[in-house]
Description:
Blueprint: H1 20-31, H2 33-44, H3 50-61, H4 70-95, H5 103-120, H6 122-133, H7 148-159, H8 168-181, H9 183-194, H10 203-233, H11 242-253, H12 262-292
Protein name: Mitochondrial carrier
Family: Belongs to the mitochondrial carrier (TC 2.A.29) family.
GO biological process, one term: transmembrane transport
Amino acid sequence: MSATTTIATPAKKAPYPFYLGGVAATIAASITHPLDLTKVRLQASGDKRMVESLKKTVNTAGFRGLFDGISGTWMRQMSYSVCRFWAYDESKKIVGADKDSPAWKLALAGSMAGGIAGLVGNPGEIVMVRMQGDYAKAPEKRFNYKHCFDALFRMIREEGASSLMRGAGPNVFRAILMNASQLASYDFFKAELLKTPYFNDNIACHFTASFAAGTVATTVCSPADVLKSRIMNASGPGSNSTIGVIRSSMKAEGAMFMFKGWVPAWMRLQPTTILIFLTFEQLKNGVDFTRSKGYTFV
Length: 298
């Protein structure tokens, strides 16, 4: 009588917490906030150079002025970034993408995630841009928001609830470009690097993949980023028209206005992208370690 043997199938790995990417993005954005602040003020004001904008900020508000509007940054990341990382994972399931999928399939999943996250995160995006851009304006034109929730409630009270969707079109378009280029590029470059004999799944690989993804994302997103900042900083009637902003900017500055602030945008997005993915990968390692010790709360 022969004995039958059964082969145990390995248990399917539990997914990582949906908020992990948002936490990583919040940490990264807090560290790089001064560069993000400078990028927004360059795009929204008449400043020509990054150093000029930094000096103006320090002279006007002191060193702490480099962290103006950080509560708006936190609001934006905990709405937009939490949503985009979650939606990207879900979109990859829908389109059948995995780590070895072609770039177009990853970009499709990133585009789907960007469309959802751009809409969900639009109020936080406006709050962040307005709080960061305030000190670049004349005192009589400033919003003077105390914190992100003050900005949110005052916008609803003074401009109506529809103001929370100001610039939603360019913002969603920019979010689609960002996630198709940043998240998808990172996954693509990481997979390609791991196919070579020179990289393992470690910090060196994560750094290289995120560096490449940051450069791609900066170039792809620059036009939509400039338009988004100019529209969201506008407050007069009819000033939030995308076509109107394009016409006036083209007339005053030429077509290259769409890449105004590219260098500070690259300098901001590169460390942010690197920090996001390095932090994200380490948080995932932390979750794996915690679960290996028998803790199941993460």
